[in-house]
Design brief:
Rossmann fold, 35% helix, binds adenosine-5'-diphosphate, binds magnesium ion
């Protein structure tokens, strides 16, 4: 059997029994003893080594670590893009305290989770090149079969909120990096997710644009959004409420943030 087929079968077995657990309604997500390894040939790399994390409603958390420390792996696991080897990733799916472990979800629950509950932002934007800014933001609502009028209202209001109402008809190639990243922020928000997961959202951007993107993140946090951002940029991480250090797949430290972005780049 091919590795791909084996993986599908394994995941099906794993996800045959989605059992709800109660969690504190104030918690968005709890991660317990998360382990993820990659095997190439004879060598195994432990990318995440028993990671534990709790994110409360409206919290902005930054995870910092150098290249190779496991940041993208963490986002991929929490974002339901990849499966960990072991551990739990329990989301407060109804925002009222009904917790479901993504590893135990059925395929249908898993797909719904990715589409509606998780807003992903990537370093390289990952926009569809043939779709306009408007269409890129609208797409998750189209897939979620949302009504046309609701789509129009939501997409327009989000593009306005992030200051891109003048760029609606632009293709990604007709926008700057900062503008493209703002489109992905709007796209991440469009189905009103439980949490925003961002992987090096300012990795490709200059200082001024980075400042603007961080200001948007802080506005979202102040409006009640929960955000987990991973970055190698220890300076910008200081704007988050909590900064957690990731070293070789382990959380090795935590400190308080809350600095203003203008102080950081003074
Ligand atoms: P970061 O985002 O912090 O740079 P990653 O999560 O991408 O770190 O990688 C963590 C470790 O896992 C690294 O040692 C990396 O080489 C390894 N790794 C990541 N993805 C894969 C993969 N698909 N196959 C094998 N090894 C991988
Ligand atoms: Mg990475």
């Amino acid at each position: 059997m091919s590795i791909e087929k084996k993986k599908v079968r394994m995941n099906k077995q794993r996800r045959a029994t989605a059992k709800a657990v109660r969690i504190d309604p104030d918690i968005v997500l709890t991660v317990k003893d998360l382990v993820k390894t990659y095997t190439i040939g004879n060598s195994t790399i432990t990318a995440l080594n028993k990671v534990n994390l709790t994110i409360r409603n409206g919290e902005f958390i930054a995870v910092v670590g150098p290249s190779g420390s496991g940041k993208t792996t963490l986002i991929n696991c929490l974002g339901a893009l990849d499966f960990p080897d072991s551990g739990e990733i329990i989301y407060n799916v109804d925002a009222k305290g009904m917790g479901l472990d993504i590893m135990q979800m059925t395929n249908k629950q898993h797909k719904k989770m990715r589409l509606n509950k998780i807003g992903l932002i990537f370093q390289f934007y990952n926009l569809f090149p043939i779709l306009t800014a408007y269409e890129n933001v609208e797409l998750p609502m189209v897939i979620a079969k949302k009504d046309t009028k609701l789509r129009e209202e939501k997409v327009k209001s989000l593009l306005k909120r992030i200051g891109l109402e003048e760029r609606m008809e632009h293709l990604p190639t007709q926008m700057s990096g900062g503008e493209q990243q703002r489109v992905t922020i709007a796209r991440a928000l469009v189905n009103e997710p439980l949490i925003i997961l961002a992987d090096e959202p300012t990795g490709e951007l200059d200082t001024e644009t980075t400042t603007n993107i961080m200001k948007i993140f802080l506005e979202l946090k102040n409006a009640g959004e929960s955000i987990l951002m991973v970055t190698h940029n220890v300076r910008i991480a200081e704007v988050a409420d909590r900064i957690i250090t990731l070293t070789d797949g382990k959380f090795t430290g935590e400190k308080k943030g809350g600095k203003s972005i203008d102080d950081i780049y003074k």
